[in-house]
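Lecture notes, unit on binding sites. The following record was shown on slide 14. It pairs a sequence with 2AL.
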Amino acid sequence: SLCIQLINPNTSLGMTEVMAATARKVASPGTEILAVCPEEGAPSIEGHFDEAIATLGVLQQVKAGREASVDGHIIACFGDPGLLAARELARAPVVGIAEAAMHMATLVATRFSIVTTLPRTLVIARHLLHQYGFERHCAALHAIDLPVLSLDDGSGMAQQKVREQCIKAKQNDGSGAIVLGCGGMADLAQELTLELGIPVIDGVSAAVRLIESLHALRLTTSKFGDLDYPLPKPLSGRFADLNN
Ligand SMILES: NC(=O)NC1=NC(=O)NC1=O
């Protein structure tokens, strides 16, 4: 059986639980989901500064996961913070929820739209599209203009905004699929797919199944070249044990 480490890079336990529940629903029988988040950091990740803060916690959790011999790591934040650094530390596959959702969208539609949280994080999604080579596949990006934690406040307001933006995207963008641009939207994909009649894709679910596929194909992170383990050197202070 498989053990997949689900890393919520922010420190909000409610979001970790929503994503863990979604991951467990979609995981194959026998796949265990080990849901974690950093001991310290940002309660939500809404920009470049928050991502920089979150990266240390992601790396600490990846190291812990490697020591626990997990079969894969999911970076469950739509900016995929620390993805390549995590791949240097990891032996097992590391998949970000943005790249997972984007890859799946390209397999079922010629173009997809992204619906994310704050307008200021749109540029982060654009950077990822460029980095992953998916710019030509993305027809449009939208933001609900609500903070990440509004998805976790129990009011249902953010969820309604996500639904509205998805309906507008389907009507206006010429996209065949929609990517949900926040880990906190993970539980909305199934219902929106049914309601809209087009694939509405959550990156947490996509990442779980991608890691299961990588495992089945015996594919693990290449340790040849730039993703080899970090060069040994005396790291100091809080970083001291990160690379050993
Ligand atoms: N675009 C986003 O909303 N990214 C995110 N920030 C978080 O804290 N979790 C996410 O998925």
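Take-home: Residues 41 and 72 are 23 Å apart (CA to CA).
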